[in-house]
Amino acid sequence: MSLRRWLTLGLLIGGSLTLYGCGEEQQSDTSSAGFAGLGQAADGFQYASPNQTIRFPQDHAAHPDYRIEWWYLTANLEDADGEPLGLQWTLFRQALMPPSERPDPTPWAADQLWMAHMAISQGEQHQVAERFGRSHSQAELYQPHDAQAGVIASPFHAWLDDWQLKASGDADSDDFNHLTLTAYSGEDASRFGYTLELTAEGPLVFHGEEGFSQKAANGQGSMYYSQPFWRIEGDVTLNGETTTVSGRGWLDREWSSQLLDARQSGWDWFSIHFADGHKLMAFQLRGGGASNDDNETDQGADYRSGTWISPQGDATPLATDDITLTPLATSSVAGRDVPTRWRLEIASLELDINIEAPQANRWMDTSVPYWEGEVLVNDRASGEPMGEGYLEMTGY
Q1: What is the pLDDT of residue 35?
Q2: DSSP SS3 for 98
C-alpha cells in the first residue's frame, strides 16, 4: 500500500511484547479499529497531515515518532528463459509506545518492532518468508548498525538481520538511485531468495497532496511517495537453483500513526506499469467513503484514490469519484473468496482496463495474512495487452 497497504504489527504486539522483552503482555483490541488495528487512535504520536514537507535524504530513513511505517518493493521480472517471475520485499516498523514513554537508549532497550516479508512467485510456485526484529528509536546514540533492524538515510541502508536494501554507491553518498537488495531463506534444495541491483530510471513520485495521501473522508492518511521507475537485474534462487533475472520494480514508502478510519475493513491496491511508459497507482479502502451534504461519512461507501504518472515522472492525483473498481471474478484462496479479476475505470483519462492475476495462489500466509501477486493488464474493449503490475488485497 504499498498504499500501499499497511500490514500493521498491531495484531502481533499482544503476543510479541513478552517475546521481545518489551514489557508485560498486552492484548490488542481491533474490533472497532479498522483493518489490523490501523484505525486505532494514536495519542502521543505524530500524525501525518497536509502541508508537511517531504525532504530527502532524511525521509528515506525511519520516522520513530510515527506509529507505523514501511519500505515496500514489488517487481515484475523475467528469468533467463523469458519466463515471468514476481518478487516482493517489505520492511515494516511499528512503534511500541509514544515518544514520551520510551526507555533510555541502550543496546538492550527496544521501543520499535520490525517485521520483514519476502516472496518469490513463478507459475504455481509461491515461496514466502517472514522475520521479526527490534530496535530502539535512538539507536544512533550507540552504534546503529549494531541494532538488529533499522533504516538510515545516508548512505541509505534498510535491514533486518542479513536481509537488506542498501545504497550501492560511495559510502558518503546520498544516492538513492542505485540500490542493492539481498535476502535469502531456507537451506539446500529449499533455499530461495535474491541478490538484485536496482537502478532508478525516473524520479521519485509524491502521492496525494504533495505527499500526503488521504485514506478516508474523515481525513486519516499517510505520508506517501514511490519510486516506480526501478530497472532491476540480478540473480534469483528458487528450489535451490539460481537464475539471472531482469525487469522493473516499484518501491513504496509510507509512514503514519492512524492510517485508516476505524470502520475500514481492508483495501485493494494496484501498481501498474503500462507498455507506453505511463504508470498508475490506485487503491480503494473498503468503507470510509465520501461525506454527504450534512458532513456525515457514508461508511458503506469505499474510499478511492490514485496517481497517474507520466513516463517523465509527472504525477496527476486522481480523486475518489474519478475511479471505479469492479470485481469481475473471485478465486478460492486459503479458504477465502478473493477477487482476482478486476475492471478499473478512470473517467478523466477515458481509461477502461481489465486487471487479472494469472495465478491465484499468491496468499501471504504471514502473521497478518494478505494476498499479494502479479497481475496482467489489457484494454477492456479490444483485449489488447497494455501492461503488468502488482495487486495487494487485505481484509478478506
Answers
A1: 42
A2: coil
| Region for residue 146 given its phi and psi (left: phi exceeds 0; alpha: psi -120 to 50; beta: otherwise) | alpha
User: Residue 14: enclosing H or E segment and its boundaries?
Assistant: helix 10-16
For the chain, the residue count is 396
Per-residue model confidence (pLDDT) at position 290: 57
DSSP code of residue 257: S
pLDDT at 265: 73
The radius of gyration computed from the CA coordinates of the chain, to the nearest angstrom, equals 20
Please give the single-letter amino acid code of residue 273.
H
| Residue 151: partners with Cβ closer than 8 Å, 6 or more residues away | 60, 61, 62, 71, 91, 93, 157, 158, 159
DSSP codes of every residue in 24-89: S------TTSSGGGTTS--TTS----TT----TTGGGS--TTSSEEEEEEEEEEEETTS-EEEEEE
- Max intra-chain CA distance, the chain: 63
Q: Whole-angstrom Cα distance, residue 224 to residue 306?
A: 11
pLDDT of residue 289: 61
d(CA 194, CA 315): 31
C-alpha cell at 147: 541494532
> Would you say 186 and 192 are in contact if contact means Cβ atoms under 8 Å apart?
yes
Quick one: cell of 370? Answer: 494478505
According to the model, what pLDDT value does residue 77 have?
98
Dihedral Cα 262, 268, 273, 274, nearest 10 deg: -120
Do the Cβ atoms of 352 and 324 come closer than 8 Å?
A: no
C-alpha dist (Å) from residue 341 to 51, 232, 310, 320, 357:
37, 27, 25, 21, 6
Question: Which residues face 354 on adjacent strands?
Answer: 343, 378
Contacts with 104 (C-beta within 8 Å, 6 or more apart), sequence order:
none
How far is it, in rounded angstroms, from Cα 303 to Cα 283? 8
Please report which helix (H) or strand (E) contains residue 234, including its range. Answer: strand 221-238
Contact 209, 221 (CB under 8 A): no
DSSP 291: B
In the prediction, which pLDDT does 27 show?
Answer: 33
DSSP class per residue in 145-179: GGSSEEEETTTTEEEETTEEEEE-S-TT----SEE
Regions in the chain scoring below 70 on pLDDT: 1-42, 107, 139-145, 170-173, 259-264, 288-300
Per-residue model confidence (pLDDT) at position 293: 44
